[in-house]
UniProtKB/TrEMBL annotation:
It holds the Pfam family Pirin_C_2. Belongs to the pirin family. The keyword ATP-binding does not apply. This is Pirin N-terminal domain-containing protein. Residues 109-217 form the Pirin N-terminal domain.
């Protein structure tokens, strides 16, 4: 096992590790080295396990280091250094603003395979922790989940979060303490403003098909809200070769409660969705004046990114494949950002525009 310290490599702060001699000794009790000249031996491995358990119980820093080590991606999903590029966006007054684009590769995200749940975390979540990826503006969680048929998340609580699920494939049942019960399918977005507190469960009741969805959380701009719930369906046709606004800040929302309108929420954040054909381009017009953050996420079609082909989009000089994301900093509104589909199949992606 190793002790953590902070260092810098290639200009990127990361967690490095130094070996702990005494901990190596403890591990050697479990796995003695036959080539040692005088190995330490116990009568049973159970004795060594008991000693290690006592140390973990009273040494919190070590326990934290072990937890983080266990939660790191497996070797074939090992984290990679983010790619950074600079481009410009055109403002409506004809001037340009420099943009810094940082790619978040699909296999650099937190990852867990629990059997019934196969998930990727863009930001720190559950046992995955990376201080570089706590949030981006009000955006706190983007989990790309695959839940096996006849399984799901049991009843649990939330408070002071805006939570929504974007269904990619399959069927997700939502049930909550506000009395809502419905089955969500592709194209539907289910939104909950947890406010002062709610309890809900999410299950894949379908016995023939798993469910693939993105669950997204954001911090509200107002605390103590009364819990609320809304579901809307945005078909593939509505998103075809255009950016369709799906979520919008209440301050910019039209106030109309129509099926084609975005879902309003209490945060300086908008989310648009697109299914962009190869060779097509779309322009996103920044939703507010002043400095903005933008994040893009390409939806995966399989559990891993295709080694060749697949859906790909391009922003500036940066290409994103399935599961990849990009942090865009330095955008200033009013202005526009262009996204192009450069893969060999339509690219489904989400674009978040938010305050800093």
């Amino acid at each position: 096992m190793e002790q953590a310290f902070t260092g810098t490599r290639h200009g990127v702060t990361e967690t490095s590790r130094q070996p702990s001699r005494w901990l190596d000794m403890m591990l050697s009790l479990l796995y003695p080295n036959p080539h040692q000249s005088s190995p330490i031996k116990f009568k049973t491995a159970a004795t060594a396990i008991a000693i290690l358990a006592v140390i973990l119980a009273f040494y919190a820093p070590l326990r934290t280091a072990i937890t983080r080590q266990i939660s790191r991606p497996s070797s074939h999903l090992a984290a990679t250094t983010p790619f950074k590029r600079t481009m410009t966006t055109t403002n409506t007054n004809g001037t340009t603003s420099p943009l810094k684009i940082t790619k978040r590769p699909w296999n650099a995200r937190g990852h867990a395979d629990h059997g019934w749940l196969y998930t990727f975390h863009t930001f720190s979540f559950a046992s995955y922790y990376d201080p570089q990826y706590e949030n981006f503006g009000p955006l706190r969680v983007i989990n790309e989940d695959r839940v096996e048929r006849s399984t799901g998340f049991g009843t649990h609580s939330h408070a002071e979060f805006l939570i929504w699920s974007y269904i990619v494939q399959g069927e997700l049942e939502h049930k909550d303490s506000m009395g809502n019960l419905e089955k969500l399918r592709r194209g539907e977005v289910q939104f909950t403003s947890a406010g002062t507190g709610i309890r809900h469960s999410e299950y894949c009741r379908n016995r023939e098909e798993d469910v693939h969805f993105l669950q997204i959380w954001a911090k509200p701009s107002v605390r103590g809200l009364k819990p609320s719930y809304k579901t809307r369906k945005y078909t593939d046709e509505m998103k075809q070769d255009r950016l369709l606004r799906v979520m919008e800040s209440v301050g910019r929302h039209s106030g109309k409660d129509e099926e084609t309108e975005p879902i309003p929420m209490h945060a300086d954040l908008s989310m648009s969705a697109s299914i962009l054909s190869p060779g097509k381009k779309v322009e996103h017009e920044l939703v507010a004046e002043g400095k903005r953050n933008v994040y893009l996420h390409v939806v995966m079609s399989e559990r891993t990114q295709p080694k060749t082909g697949g859906a790909r989009i391009k922003i500036g000089q940066e290409e994103l494949g399935e599961g990849d994301g990009a942090f865009v900093r330095g955008a200033v509104g009013p202005g526009k950002i262009e996204v192009e589909s450069v893969g060999d199949k339509p690219a489904e992606f989400l674009l978040f525009d938010m305050g800093q």
